[in-house]
Amino acid sequence: MAVNLLDFDLEGLAAWCEGLGEKRFRAVQLFRWIHQKGAGDFAAMTDLARSLREKLQQHAEIRALPVFGEQRSADGTVKWLFDVGGGNAVEAVFIPEADRGTLCVSSQAGCAVGCRFCSTGHQGFSRNLSTGEIVAQLWHAEHSLRRALGLAPPERAIDNVVMMGMGEPLQNYAALVPALRVFLDDHGYGLSRRRVTVSTSGVVPMIDRLREDCSVALAVSLHAPDDTLRESLVPLNRKYPLAELLAACRRYLDRAPRDFITFEYCMLDGVNDSDEQARALVRLAAGQGPAGEAWPRVPCKFNLIPFNPFPASGLKRSPRERVLAFAAILQDAGIVTTVRKTRGDDIDAACGQLAGEVLDRTQAAERLARRRVDVPLVAAPSNAPAPGRGRSLASTVGSAPSTTTPAGARSAA
Ligand code: SF4
Hints:
With about 425 residues, the chain is an alpha/beta fold. The chain folds into two domains: about 5-60, DNA polymerase, domain 1 (Orthogonal Bundle), CATH 1.10.150; about 80-370, Alpha-Beta Barrel (TIM Barrel). It has twelve helices and 14 strands. The protein has helices at about 10-20, 25-35, 50-60, 130-150, 175-185, 205-215, 225-235, 240-250, 275-285, 320-330, 365-375, 395, and strands spanning about 5, 60, 65-70, 80-85, 90-95, 100-105, 110, 125-130, 160-165, 195-200, 215-220, 260-265, 300-305, 335-340. Strands 3-4-5-6-9-10-11-12-13-14 form a ten-stranded mixed beta sheet, covered by helices on one side. A two-stranded parallel ribbon has the order 1-2. β12, α9 (about 275-285) and β13 (about 300-305) form a beta-alpha-beta unit. It binds iron/sulfur cluster.
């Protein structure tokens, strides 16, 4: 089978070219043709020797992902559904803003982490994407947008990439790092390390490895101020609890291109959106654990994400005034806090809505469904506490959040 050149970072391509008897500068030329000019056909690479083009035709290909569909939102957001074979399809989303264009890229077909509020997590897991399949999302998006917008190099459509699509990127580390290197390489897409973000649900050992291997900006899906609630929202928290996660964030900052970690926080009505939970986050950021113990202080910024409901979640979006009150508590404590604008929700392209098509090979979806029964969510304490009983989320959905479960307590099933 022909080698897919999208699978290589520049060093990998140089080594492969060496095997063909070609010098490194030929690999640089080839890399620039593929990533900077978007060439998909070796015949177009006119400054390469004919003999090299013939070898490439014989041994290699630039394997773009077949596009199942492209949808455009009224707000300019574009979503592509890419066929990755075997009954799986993954999504990538372009989000245009006044000062930048962002591409949200997928790293896996499905996801085994199974976060409760995430549409991908509810579908289970099929497989990791290869480096070539990760890079192909940017390759297609950048060059098709350039053609549509009439942009010519050095103009580009995408100057910001976030690994926040389908999948947990740090559970596909071997394929992720070469892809990041392609994004960053001056002969590739030339993106700044500050403008490439890996978002993780908290795979602690891999956060440490990323710091050593390719320290781009880091975003961490936090979603709760204590371990009990976080375990019920982000099951990986059982393996890597908050104290370990925050310590890894602190270590990451020694090499990070930014001097803060972005904490993503999906706002769930009556679950994690109370004033007391906002104050607990302020204490965490200041280096104080839930029981008042000393934890590493993590310079951070919060990104509050309005939840995008989907039928299987049984969760509701926090009302806008609750999100603003929550944000105000963080901001008053001096923490930079933004509320993410929902983009592309008319085409199901907003955060947490990416679902693609996943042939679940691991029964992750089934396990997740069982876990939802085994570990009921803990509802947020009321903002006007009163003595009383806790109750599980299931009983609060559809009603005003008026529960009194203490923060951190596990409610009875
Ligand atoms: S939020 Fe991320 S880590 Fe969690 S299930 Fe969704 S894709 Fe996986």
